[in-house]
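Sample intake sheet
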Amino acid sequence: MKYLIVVPDGAADEPIEALGGKTPLQTANMPHVNALAAVGEVGMVSTVPEGIAPGSDAANLSVMGYDPRVYLTGRSPLEAASIGIDMSETDVAFRTNIVTLEGDGAYEDLIVKDHSSGDITTAEADQLIQAVNEAFANEKIKFYTGVSYRHCMIVHDGSTEYELTPPHDILTRKAGAYLPKGEGAEFITEMMKKSYEILKDHPVNKARVEKGLNPANSLWIWGQGKKPQLSSFYDKYQINGATISAVDLIKGIGVCAGLETIDVEGATGTIHTNFDGKAEAAIEAFKRGVDFLYVHLEAPDECSHQGDMPGKIKSLELIDEKVVGPVIDYLKSVGEDFRFLIVPDHQTPLSIRTHKGRPVPYVFFDSSKAQAEDESRAFNEVSGASSGNFFANGYELTDHFFAK
């Protein structure tokens, strides 16, 4: 038996007037996924427990089989594991975005325009992180380059007792109301403010502005936490597996769980990612004996954050055409039984351009237990809700998926 979980990040949404009251999942042409839904199981699942922020950290831990109420210690420590940072028990990791602020006057009055700086390249971002290290690094603080706009700050003997806001939650708003709060948080605020003076005229950003691209002109620090302690995925499910993702967070969860991480050249986490390469990597992994793959695709989420409705719909269609279709065709061709689960980690409604903790739809297909075809079963919010199938916790759906 082979096992495949596909996570179209942020794919779940709400009815949109411009789509005739439909959601992007109802609108997108996804024939491969919906063919499996018609002979499989559909339903809804709550991936984020009540009282926990609907971040990709909690949601993906849940979908990978781990209760966020037990295992979540913060987003950045998981990303640090992917980067290869060896954290001590007293280290605190912070997610460090390089963002686009716009406007004039004091830092507090600048507008948070873009949490991803126009999906800046990692090569460009690395030069900016080097400049930040030259300005701020010392025996206690150091910055590490991640992927694109997503980076990491480690504070030795640090505190987690700060109120820090994800930048994708405050797009188009003034920065001042969302600066770090809490005892001792002033050092974070000062670094963010000083980083703007350092980065706004950096050669990388001058070149980006000349090309009409968003400059990466400020640090935005959030997502703090200490070293995570996940139980072994193999001990949990008795299955060897791997993750395929462009995102350090997903790779980090995999590393902490003892899963292999598979890198794909050209994987960006946007709609311009190498979808074909991810499918090829998945097929090659199955061929060499990997039994389980967690394939994460960030594009729908990024399109949602940008308010790009056509892009979100297109990204869903590309996932179906270029990832789900080829991998399922391969699994069918070799004649081995397989289980397939597609489930968003969380909602990212286009109307609010950030995450929401409401239940999301899923499709579960087991080739050894195909049902009579029913075309009313499909991968969308309406079909999932009308099925009557509901899991109160994401990890319970994952347990169901792996049940012997």
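Comment: The chain has two domains: 2-72+229-402, 83-225. Residues 98 and 219 are 5 Å apart (CA to CA).
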